[in-house]
Design goal:
Spore Coat Polysaccharide Biosynthesis Protein SpsA, Chain A, seven-stranded mixed beta sheet, alpha/beta, 10 helices
Length: 309
C-alpha cells in the first residue's frame, strides 16, 4: 500500500546549520521505497543554510526545496512547510532540526500507517547527549519521553516525529500563530485534528535521536521547560467550548501539582537519590505554577532562545 508513496519531509530550521546538516544526512540514508521530497524552511531572513541545503537536492527522488520564511516564529515556519510541500504528495512527515532519524524511520512510519489505516502516525524521540552532562541528568532520565506499543491509539501527536496524510493539513487548517514563540502549536494542531475525526497511532520502531546540548542539561532549562509546558496547556484550553470549566480544572490540577511538589521537597532532600528527586519535586512546582498562570492567559516564549547542537 505504501510502496512508492510520495512523502514530503518537512523541516523548520533556525540558527542550527550543524543540526540541519546532520538531519539531512539522516534523511539521505533512509532505507525506503518512498518517493521523498524534503522541504527546508529557514526561519532566518538571511537564509544562511541555502547553499548547504540546495547542494543535497539531487539526493532525494522528488528533490529538496529550500525557502526562507522571514516572519519569526515556529508556527510561521511550519505553515510555510505545509504550503511548500506540494499537492502531489500523499503524506507529510515532520522532524525538528536537532534530530537525526534512524535509517528505518520513514519506512516504519509508512508500514504502521498501512497496517493500521491511521491518518497520523508518531514515534519515539530518544535523547542523545552531544557532550558530557551531569550524572543526575542521566540518572533522572529527564529527557526521556513515554513510549507505547506499536498501533496504540493516542489523543494527539507532536511535530518532532510524525507522518500524516496530506488531508489532515488540508482539512484541519494551519498551526495557530498565537503559539509562534511559545511552542505547543503541535499539541493544539493535532488535538484539533483528532477533534475532526482523524486518528493517531504509535509506531515504536520509527525512532529519531534528539541531540541534547549541554546548555539544555541544566536545572534552569528543565524548570523553564516544565513551566512552559504548564502555560501551554492553558493556552490550548482557550478555544474549548467549555473554556471556563477547562480553566477551572486546569487551576485545580495546577494547584495539586504545586502542592505535591512542595510536600515532596523535604522528603526528596533526605532520600538516597537526593539530586534526582529534588529536581522532580521542583519540576512539579514549576509545572503546576505554569498551569495556573496559563489558565489566566500567561505565556512563556521559549522559542526566543535557540540552543546550538
Amino acid at each position: 500500500m505504501t510502496l512508492n508513496a510520495r512523502v514530503a519531509v518537512c523541516v523548520a530550521t533556525y540558527a542550527r546549520p550543524d543540526g540541519l546538516a546532520r538531519l539531512l544526512d539522516g534523511l539521505r540514508g533512509q532505507r525506503t521505497d518512498a518517493l521523498v521530497r524534503v522541504i527546508v524552511v529557514d526561519n532566518d531572513a538571511g537564509g544562511p543554510c541555502r547553499a548547504m541545503s540546495e547542494a543535497q537536492a539531487t539526493c532525494f527522488p522528488l528533490g529538496l526545496r529550500y525557502v526562507v520564511e522571514p516572519q519569526r516564529g515556529i508556527t510561521y515556519a511550519r505553515n510555510r512547510c505545509v504550503a511548500e510541500a506540494g499537492d502531489d504528495v500523499t503524506f507529510l512527515a515532520m522532524l525538528d532540526d536537532d534530530e537525526v532519524p534512524e535509517p528505518e524511520w520513514l519506512a516504519e512510519l509508512l508500514r504502521v500507517q498501512a497496517t493500521t489505516g491511521a491518518d497520523i502516525v508518531t514515534g519515539p524521540v530518544v535523547p542523545y547527549f552531544a557532550s558530557p552532562v551531569p550524572t543526575w541528568v542521566r540518572d533522572g532520565r529527564f529527557f526521556d519521553r513515554p513510549r507505547h506499543a506499536t498501533g496504540r491509539r493516542l489523543p494527539h501527536a507532536h511535530t518532532h516525529n510524525v507522518l500524516a496524510r496530506r488531508a489532515v493539513f488540508d482539512e484541519t487548517g494551519t498551526f495557530d500563530n498565537r503559539f509562534a514563540l511559545t511552542g505547543g502549536e503541535d499539541l493544539e494542531f493535532f488535538r484539533r485534528a483528532v477533534g475532526r475525526g482523524f486518528s493517531v497511532v504509535w509506531a515504536d520502531g520509527a525512532q529519531v535521536l534528539e541531540w541534547i546540548p549541554a546548555s539544555r542539561a541544566t536545572l534552569t532549562w528543565l524548570l523553564r521547560r516544565s513551566y512552559r509546558g504548564g502555560t501551554t496547556l492553558g493556552l490550548v484550553d482557550r478555544d474549548r467550548s467549555d473554556v471556563w470549566r477547562a480553566r477551572g480544572g486546569r487551576v485545580v490540577r495546577g494547584l495539586g501539582r504545586l502542592v505535591q511538589g512542595v510536600l515532596l521537597t523535604p522528603v526528596a532532600a533526605l532520600s538516597p537519590r537526593r539530586s534526582v528527586r529534588l529536581v522532580r519535586a521542583m519540576q512539579l512546582i514549576a509545572r503546576g505554577a505554569g498551569m495556573i498562570v496559563g489558565a489566566f492567559g500567561g505565556r512563556y516564549e521559549e522559542y526566543r532562545v535557540t540552543h546550538q547542537v
